[in-house]
Amino acid sequence: MEELSDEDRLWQDRQPPRNRVSQELAVEVELEVQGGTRWEARCIDIHIGGILLEFSPDNLPSVDVDSNVFVTIQLDGEVAAKIPSTVRHINARRLGLVFSDLSTQDPGQENRLSRIVRNVEREILKEKNQQ
Questions:
Q1: How far is CA 71 from each of CA 6, 82, 104, rounded to the nearest angstrom?
Q2: Tens digit of pLDDT for each residue in 16-64?
Q3: How many angstroms from the chain centroid is the CA of residue 28?
Q4: In whole angstroms, what is the distance from residue 129 CA to residue 108 CA?
């Protein structure tokens, strides 16, 4: 099992159990701000209410807490969702985002996000059962 860094342990202690995404799972994420600037990120954790992203040191986004952004999430090259979000916190190379209420917007986005989260949960359970 992957050893957690001090930062990961701190995050884990502050939050209820979530869906920690392994690097082997093909979850592609891109953060976009108004004006079209985009950054690729690694999904660390995802749930129906938000996502924790990690960026490479040479590709840090220039956003502030409470910034409105879009996050595009794609799973295994199939299911994709572009979700309006708000930056909740920034910690070094990580950003925590809260998803906007999708029920008032395109219902298809909410369905796609639910499918992504369910598929991630299934993969996490498979990994746990193999250990």
A1: 26, 6, 17
A2: 445 555 555 567 889 999 888 999 998 888 888 888 999 999 989 999 9
A3: 9
A4: 32
In the chain, how many H helices and how many E strands?
A: 2, 7
Please identify which residue in the block is written with the tokens 């809260």. Answer: 98
Which of 41, 117, 116, 118 is closest to 80 using CA atoms? 116
CB atoms within 10 A of CB 77: 8
Residue 120 confidence (pLDDT) = 78
Sequence spans of domains, the chain: 20-130
Q: What's the rounded Cα separation, in Å, for the pair 72 and 85?
A: 10
User: How far is residue 18's CA from residue 48's CA, in Å, rounded to a whole number?
Assistant: 10
Tokens of 82: 């572009």
Q: Decide if 107 contacts 88 (C-beta within 8 A).
A: no
CA distance readout (Å), 45 to 9, 17, 41: 13, 10, 12
Q: Which fold has domain 20-130?
A: Thrombin, subunit H (2.40.10)
Q: How far is CA 94 from the centre of its chain?
A: 10
Token reading at 112: 């796609």
